[in-house]
Amino acid sequence: MGEPGGYRCVECNREAPELYRDYQRGVLRIAICKSCQKPVDKYIEYDPVIILINAILCKTQAYRHILFNTQINIHGKLCIFCLLCEAYLRWLQLQDSSQNTDPDDLIRYAKEWDFYRMFGIASLEQTAFLVGIFTALWLARPESLKTKSDFIFLLKALLLSSYGKLLLIPAVIWEHDYTPLCLKLIKVFVLTSNSQAIRVTLNLSQTLTLLAILSGLILENGIVYFFQRMGWNV
């Protein structure tokens, strides 16, 4: 993502002017951090698969590499695709919950409106979750979100760290008795990734990070409760 503040050392989180120096003819030398005397970003030599594995393991160094030292601009597309995955899962559950075998009823559930409704609800829940996080952080540590660029950078980090929602589709396609458990584990993984993204982006304590995640969950569940009171299946 590479903003704000330029490059960062993946070990100590200090700012760095460069990741490596090019001496021409294919000779590159990784920059050394002046603070910790370690390579600024060891991951520039790693295979993308190794970086992904480290990110899945929620390693702080891997998150710093991805968020500060790379140019990734798929946040919007990833967010839309994740919402589509979640809407599709809810749409399938809505069909399964119907015990009516009337063909007209099956046709009604097959209409696009049901899927679009699930997509809208998933979008509102995601928005509420993000608003809860930003509100908690702004109230507890206003100096961490001083500028518009700070808000945008954290938003991009949160959207990018929600990549775990892509696992919803395989969990549904290969349905088995443990699918409900898998869905819960995916939810926990996404929240853990979001928490790590907040910690790395704002350099906050684990307690404050968990408080922000909890605030987001409370507001998100408030939206779910509201729709349930309206009689909608969410």
UniProtKB/TrEMBL annotation:
Domain of life where this protein originates: Eukaryota
Q: How does it sit in the membrane?
A: Multi-pass membrane protein
Q: Where in the cell is it found?
A: Endoplasmic reticulum membrane
Q: Which Gene Ontology cellular component annotation is one that this UniProt entry carries?
A: endoplasmic reticulum membrane
Q: What is this protein called?
A: Protein ARV
The record ties this protein, via InterPro entries, to: Arv1
Biological process (GO), any one: intracellular sterol transport
Stretches that traverse the bilayer:
115-139, 151-174, 208-227
State its role.
Mediator of sterol homeostasis involved in sterol uptake, trafficking and distribution into membranes.
What keywords does the record list, in alphabetical order? Endoplasmic reticulum, Lipid metabolism, Lipid transport, Membrane, Transmembrane, Transmembrane helix, Transport
Similarity section: Belongs to the ARV1 family.
